[in-house]
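Input sequence (386 aa), recorded before submission:
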Amino acid sequence: MNIKSLLLGSAAALIAVSGARAADAVVVAEPEPAEYVKICDVYGAGYFYIPGTETCLRIGGYVRYDIGAGDIGSFDGARATDVKSGKDQGTWKKNARFALKTWTGQETELGTLKTYTETRFNFGNSRDSGRASYDLVNDRYVAGAGAGGSVSLNFAWIQLGGLRVGKDESAFDTFIGYAGNVIQDTLVPYGGFDTNVVQYYFDAGNGFSAVVSLEEGYGAYTIDSYVPHVVGGVKWTQGWGAITGVVAYDSNYEEVAGKVRLDVNVSSALSLFLMGGYGSDSNYTDGSYFLPAGGRGMYKQWSGNWAVWGGGSYKFNEKTSFNAQVSYDEGKNLGVAANIAYDVVPGFTVTAEVDYLNVGNDTVSNWTHAEKKSNIGGILRFQRSF
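Predicted structure, token format:
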């Protein structure tokens, strides 16, 4: 009887405790407030605020596929060795690229703080990668390298107000502008590109701007002491176009080069440009321990002292444009490039280009590895930009 009473009492106690707990209010943790991405329209389309900061970020880039054919001197073709017969013959030159770009911007008490980066991932064959080479050890020919990949950091700079530091392309080219909207715009080269820089940009706000750039150079054109290469430029921009001039000092060889350019907006559909370059070259040809290939330095990369580039763009409609460039230098090297660019849908462009290079009596053949005087080729480009 005592055991029965004990069991009944225990059950009643458990029911009472359970009922008391059920009567208590259920406590649920408050959710953290959602922090949505906010659009930043201060620096243009595509920017958004990085959550928790005042920094605006934009992410973009492009995916590109190039198909080239023709003479290697036109920059569009490639050569290969037939693996059965050993015959040297032409082949496609192809390259796939993914370029990743980032931009940031933030307003500070010292001005706008900006950054820009661009990294390129490539896979393709070079103009000579398919050619066989001779293996001296095994006394036989071996196949060429074929297609391969590469990664390059093309831009990575910081700018506060007018001061920019980091990896950029030379102001000798960027400030005055590239030589037209053609793919192969360096059939007659107009300057070296890759370099680390310390630059200052000045914008008067009335169309006048200027730049001073201290540059390191690249490859064989890298500075050989603590003295940097120096570039200076001025520009006057109005609604009709612009007039620009740049001067560069090659500290390695103590040579000077300069370019002047006229851009004209003839109409809303037609724009034209004319650019001329002149450079000294006495130290490139004699009296130096290292002689640059073809008498070229970091900035004067054309043949002889002078060179000219001209061309323009014409928009047939919102989707289709025609672009052309003609270039010529004192070494009698003549380059012609023309293309049609068509926007299939917004962000996807197909460009078909024809290129021609007539090698003169000087140095360009060393630069382009041209194997004959007259070179022609073509390239088809597919590009998705985002």
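Checked by second reader. The chain has one domain: 56-385.
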